## 1
Amino acid sequence: MEAVSACCQQESLVHLLIAAAGSGRRMGADRNKLLLAVHGRPVLAWTLEAAGAAQSIDWIGVIGQPVDQPAMAELFHHAGQPVTWIEGGSTRQESVERGLQALPGDASHVLIHDGARCLVASQVFNCCAEALLEGGAVIAATPVSDTIKRVDAQGVITDTPDRSELWAAQTPQGFSVSELREGHAQARARNWEVTDDASLFERLGWPVRVLDAGPGNIKVTTPFDLTVAAAVLAQR
């Protein structure tokens, strides 16, 4: 995948879907991790603030589970722009597909963002939107700094991939709405299960570029991640 510059000079308007239908299982929490407090506010509140401040975002939809709707709806009032609620499915893949179905009729380009990436900067949304509208799919990512080992089922190292070719995928990920809908339709027809939308394009042989968004756009998944996120937000 070809990397594109993180610098951008002007913003264009796109639609944004925020995936927020997860749980707190890996966090060890009794509720959706996006409702846990980080630096005094729920995780999702920080994500919505960044999205609401991005000049490139014309419309925001949050995909969640019915049990979380009342708590999340309270956060929508402080998002900086109107937010549409979308009921999610049993998997992330199904939830994004429902989000695509709920987009306004004039939506031509969409960014998909994990609500748990609450440290995302507004400028990352803007730069991904610009790269998307310049042509082709794009994802935020960061070059891998660790040496990666491929390991077999017995825990024995089998290979060391070239680190210069490795990137850690993040979100937002941007796509043509029509192409992403086609990708999800193909996944249903072929019983594919993927962990992010870029993987659909990869399986179909459609190109996806990476945009270097830096290492700070972490995903809050574990209690340690909450600690890191709180420290970063406290310094902003």
Note: The first strand starts at residue 3 and ends at 4.
## 2
Amino acid sequence: MPPLAAGLAIVSAVLHVGWNAALRGASATVRFVWVEMLAGGFLGLLMVGATGDVRLHGALWWAVLTVGIHAVYFLALMLAYRTGALSVVYPGSRGLGVLLTVPAAAWFLAETVRPLTVAGIVLVGAGLFFLVVGRRPGPIRQYGWTALVGICVMGYSLVDSHAMHLMAPPLYITIQFWGTALCLTPLALREATPLNVRTPILAGLASLASYVLILYAYRLAPVGAVLALRQLAPALAPLAATLWLRERPARTEVLGALVVAAGSALIIFG
């Protein structure tokens, strides 16, 4: 993998786990995600204005498809966080996403998976397994929503990887953010939970930056390897859960974080 793509994926991972921790800390309300999407979409508009690239290149339907997948993704993510801890839901969903995406990318996009990449992905999967089993079993619905999040990760990763060869990332992500906010508007208006908008605004900016970086990484390297390297974020999840949410990760979760880091290193050299 090119070093620039690896760097983009790592920074994206740090930002991604940050806004997820913020969402979990805010009780995973619809209004939080709604404001997050609006804030990210506004920053996206500024980026589109700065680049001046508004050419669709036939990718509009791909952008519409990613909006639909992301709407389901955020709804499932909110429901998962309402029943489960960050250090369980986050690594579980991201791990399932990467394990599904790599073979799917090889099948549908004809991407080549090298031996070291395979070894790294296996280690990432093993590390995420240790992260997930580190706690006592939670409600069944928690794992159901977590699995749905992972499936959505696979879906939008494949769609986004293809669309990045057709449309500039700032325009694509702006459509995704505003479109997702539009889908969530009826639910957000019905929700009566009060909200301090500063945190979701910051989360929206971090979310957009994380997404833009990963989209540019998709332009430089195969989607499976990029997404697997981004799994450094689950390795950071126990730390974020401890410092931010006062969760106490088990020893197996710490072990899982180290295994994920080792697998990610193999992916870089693969």
Note: The chain has eleven helices and no strands.
## 3
Amino acid sequence: MSSGRVFVTGGASGLGRAIAERFARAGARVCVGDVDEEAGNEVAARLGGGAFFLRCDVTKDEDFEHARDELEARWGGVDVVVNNAGVAQAGPIDAVPMDDWKWIVDINLLGVVRGCRTFTPVFKRQRSGHLVNVASMAGLLDVPFMSSYNATKAAVVSLSETLQNELEEEGIRVSVVCPSFFKTNIAASMRATDPGLRAATERFLSRSPLTAEDVANDVYEAVEHGRFYVLSHKDGRAAWMLKRLLPRRMYAAVLRKQTRAMRRAAGAG
């Protein structure tokens, strides 16, 4: 990746920042896209190597179009687009407001769609490129009280699987990233109808043995070696296997037991 050109949305913090840092360490030129201009500029300055910041609100088509035009003007194209920006929401289906559904769909799903739609024509002209779409284990599993989050992440998985089939003959690679809990700041922007759900999320994030840097390294390796699924967590891979192999009733019973334990842990905190 010494000559790579990489654009990362949500690159000013959390996993996005870690991904930007990992590619920069490998010698790539990196553009940090984010809505937080101060943090984004700080990250770009620390990266060095000609890294720079662009404001990119993933709910706005024009921000992606501006990023595309700027990257083509500065770099003559782009090699890796990481659609990372995302938010979280938790609550029972009958308690989550429709405004929260619209908010999370616009960012988690349509933000990825916008990134893919905007940069695919660039990749087609180049006959090369790599889309990295950050989903979640929530997109492969189905934890209760996370319906809006699960639905958007499952849609990102399906979108990525579709694009892998659609774009391979164009010389375009796709990866979908499905981490479980890891130390990150996503809880800061989380919307939750129940304070216990927020507390449980923060507890599981803080207890994870994996960091954003661990997941970012897996993302880098996936791009280097052309891997599609990026599943960093051993327990997440095991849970996905159980879902695919167990009868639905048995799998659902295991999931309900884990959810009750999660809520008890939140109450204890």
Note: Strands lie at 5-9, 29-34, 52-55, 80-83, 89-90, 129-134, 172-177, 191-192, 229-230.
## 4
Amino acid sequence: MSKITIHTADEIEAMRRVGAEAADLLDFITPYVKAGVSTLSLDDLMLDYTVNTLKAKSACLGYNPGNGVPYPRATCISVNNVICHGIPSEKKILKNGDIVNIDVTIEKDGFFGDNSRMFIIGKPTIAGKRLVEATWGCMWAGIEAVRPGNCFNDIGIACQKFVKPLGLSIVHEYGGHGIGRVFHGEPHVCHVPISMPTARFEPGMIFTVEPMVNAGKRHIMDLNDGWTVVTKDRSLSAQWELEVVVTETGYDILTVSKGMPEPPEWVKGWKKPSFA
């Protein structure tokens, strides 16, 4: 197992600043996410805001982890049965009832900020609303397991325990990741229980919690564009993502903005700060 970075107090504050701006990017795009717009038009708006307002870079644009296909857009926009890495397109027009995940990562001052948020277009379907809300709860169940003394596998145990009674399934192939001065670092964060030992939480660790939850079975299928991942059974999929730092007594959230949703009422470890 590779070493997990323990961030200094100054590094954590730098991550808090870039995390807040990554969350602010999702606040900015929210009014534009509606029926009749293309996912490419949303991507264009977010790239412009990233560069000209936030004075940052898109970490996704041109990203190439070694699969030979650089990612062609500034954000990932995944609609309905797309699990992750949906490539924005002028041909993909949002319509009423769609559920949409927008995943953004920015780089600024040598640090990365990464988060994603679900949107429901117009009047929601019963199934879509239920899945979006359940996935929000699943993510928070995993986050609530974060505290010194616990281990990373406790995130997967908590996420699985939350969704299993609901008849939903969690994607196994993708998970969260360490983040800081690198986009994707150690550890890989599983959202289902695994049999191998996992590291224990230590103050200063920073990582994402981002379960991908399917309304049907967990199995995935890769499209031939080199990036887009869909549900094999064409069922709906949803995902939320926040950055978490381990503290001396529990955790804190680094991707915080005025427009981020309030955590579920049962969350005990964190309270959204007030914004003037």
Note: The radius of gyration is 17 Å.
